[in-house]
Amino acid sequence: MEMPKLTRIQPHLFQAYYAWMVENAAKIMIYVDAVRLTDEFLKSKAGPDGTLALDVTPQAVRFLSTSQEGISFHTRFKGVVTPVVIPFEAFSTLAGWITGYEEPVVLVFPMVEDVETLPTPPQDNRPKLTVVK
Fold it and tell me: CA torsion sign, 85 to 87 to 92 to 98?
C-alpha cells in the first residue's frame, strides 16, 4: 500500500512557536543560511559566515505569512520597506529571547522530511497473537 504524501511540518511548528513567543513578548529572530537564498539583496546582508539574522517581532515586520514553502513578510532595511521571502530550505533557527530569562527559546531547522533518509527500525520478529473464533 502506498503511503500518502504528508505536508511539511515546518510551517505548523513555526506558527506555533512564533505565536507562543509573541504571546510572551519575546524578541524573535530567524537565522537563515543565505547560501540557500535566491534573493541577491538578502544574500548581500548576510554575515561573513553566510548567516542572515532577521528580526521578526510584530513591531519589525508587516504582513507575516506562512505557507508550505516558507515565510514571507515586509520589513525595513535602512528605512526602505522591502518584501522578504524565506524558503524553509534556507531556515536555520527560530529564536526568542524573553525578558527575565537567560537562555533563548530555540527551534532548529531544517528538519528531516524525507523519511527514506531515516534509518529503518529493526524488524519485530516476535510471535504475533491472533484471535481464533
Answer: positive
